Amino acid sequence: MENKVVLITGAGRGLGRAIAEAFHKAEWHVIATDMDEKLFSDISVKERYTCVKLDITSEKETENGARMADEKFGRIDVLVSNAGIVDYYPISEAGSERLRKIFDVNMFGLANLTKYFLPLLMKSTGRLVVISSESYKVPSPFQPYVVSKQALEKLYNSIKIELSTKGVKTVLIRPGAIDTQILKSTVDFNYTASGSVFQKEFERFGLLIPKYIGKIISPEKVAKVVLKAGVSRKPKRIYHINHNPLITLLTILPGKMKEYVIRNNFNDF
Ligand code: NAD
Hints:
Bound molecules: nicotinamide-adenine-dinucleotide
CATH topology: Rossmann fold
Order of helices and strands: EHEEHEHHEHEHHHEHH
Strand order of the largest sheet: 3-2-1-4-5-6-7
């Protein structure tokens, strides 16, 4: 049988790299893409593995990526929307310009991918796999990352139905903590907001956040689940990986109680 083709965004390192390797091991043609080409410099030339620069915030680069995939392979069987970034700051003071930076990658990136890759996905009756995050479930101060993942999930809900009318399946992945650069950035982040009215609360948030991360698993473990989501004949609608019990507990609390518990963390100065 002809090798199937997967394209992964943000595949230069971390989870994206592990997903690329998992599909490659399963004999797929891999198109590993990332905005930062240098991240591919340690990958030796190998069969069925193509590295491409693709910044998902750029319509031009996304369109070029789709054209290249069409010319070289004529199909995309699985498209993994994985690239993401993290940041921390008081959201109420951020303004649209600062917030847009994280939304551009974590939410609008998916909009660019579907716009340019849909014809190829339709042609191959392919599948879209979207990496969200378990953290989307909880309203959290100072985490534009969480807000962007909540927005991503809303966007995904509409895209899912539209694509299903064209025979394109979609799968959502909601992992907990993974041992990658995003997690390291969270732990090492400098939680100071000088000049902010939330300076004290933000510093307190910085002290608390490592305690709420929960169990950390390897990107390879998550990649195995993503591969399953990509190849399974009847994939689940949503794959949850590495539940954080604290998040699960917060999720089942009624809205007012949830906000009380989260807000109360900032009281004891
Ligand atoms: P990472 O920082 O190691 O990898 C992210 C990759 O995305 C990098 O290679 C980066 O260069 C690339 N990237 C960033 N902006 C891009 C853009 N505009 N266009 C193309 N590529 C871009 O982090 P990771 O943990 O591997 O992140 C992968 C996905 O996993 C993200 O969507 C993240 O939200 C999600 N996730 C991570 C965790 C975690 O704990 N690490 C938990 C849940 C979900």
